[in-house]
């Protein structure tokens, strides 16, 4: 995997975010098994994938990342208890640094490249990621981002009306730092790969 020896600098050129129509947010759901209108986005077409890649132990892997939620709190909810019973629960994961963005970046590229904040970064396209490993073996992949306004969204964040406190300033429902694949140019600037950066409404 390629390494970047120096600290990444902020992008020297301003990139235009994909235009998005404002969503309407509703109150949160009444329980973990009840879908909230907050977690749907605009319709998109489904991905056209080849048949599932047959694995030695399993055929699919799904990672669910929880930001700012204690493990004990998340693990004790009925939905995650049910999921843990159906799969493998790995509990010995730790951050490589702080704050959020460097950890997300490291999970995809194996390195946090000296990042020490949550600013707007883009990692050059010559840096390899887990996507290269998957595609080299013919394994398809996708990322699904909560409250991202459109597929392939490159923007720094997405703000909309605060449904809990309507008189307050708009709330950042989506932030780019939690979407590591879009930070890597090898994904975000590749026309085929970026189509796999999806909203929840697939």
Question: Your description of this structure?
Answer:
GO terms for molecular function: hydrolase activity, acting on ester bonds. This is Acid phosphatase. It holds the Pfam family Phosphoesterase. This protein is α+β, with helices and mostly antiparallel strands and 202 residues long. Helix content is 19%, strand content 7%. It has a domain of 140 residues. The chain has 6 helices and 4 strands, in the order ααααβββααβ. The strands form 2 sheets. Strands 1-4 form a two-stranded parallel ribbon. Strands 2-3 form a two-stranded antiparallel sheet. The radius of gyration is 18 Å and the shape is globular. The N terminus is likely disordered.
Please give the largest β-sheet: 2 strands, parallel
Number of helices in the DSSP assignment: 6
Order the strands across the largest sheet as they lie in space: 1-4
| Mean model confidence by pLDDT | 78
Separation of the first and last Cα atoms: 31 Å
GO biological process, one term: phospholipid catabolic process
Protein name: Acid phosphatase
Organism: Mycena albidolilacea
Keywords: Hydrolase, Signal
């Amino acid at each position: 995997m390629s390494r970047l020896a120096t600290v990444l600098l902020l992008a020297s050129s301003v990139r235009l975010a994909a235009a998005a129509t404002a969503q309407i947010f509703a109150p949160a759901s009444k329980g973990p098994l009840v879908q909230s209108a907050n977690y749907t986005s605009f319709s998109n077409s489904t991905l056209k994938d080849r048949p599932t890649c047959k694995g030695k132990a399993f055929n699919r892997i799904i990672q669910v990342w929880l930001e700012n939620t204690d493990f004990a709190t998340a693990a004790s909810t009925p939905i995650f208890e049910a999921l843990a019973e159906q799969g493998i629960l790995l509990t010995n994961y730790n951050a490589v640094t702080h704050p959020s963005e460097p950890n997300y970046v490291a999970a995809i590229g194996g390195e946090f490249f000296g990042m020490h904040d949550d600013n707007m970064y883009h990692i050059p396209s010559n840096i390899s990621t887990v996507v290269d490993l998957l595609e080299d073996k013919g394994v398809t992949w996708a990322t699904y981002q909560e409250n991202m306004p459109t597929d392939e969204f490159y923007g720094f964040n997405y703000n909309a009306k605060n449904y809990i406190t309507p008189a307050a300033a708009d709330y950042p429902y989506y932030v780019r730092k939690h979407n590591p694949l879009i930070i890597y140019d090898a994904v975000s600037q590749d026309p085929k790969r970026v189509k796999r950066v999806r909203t929840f409404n697939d």
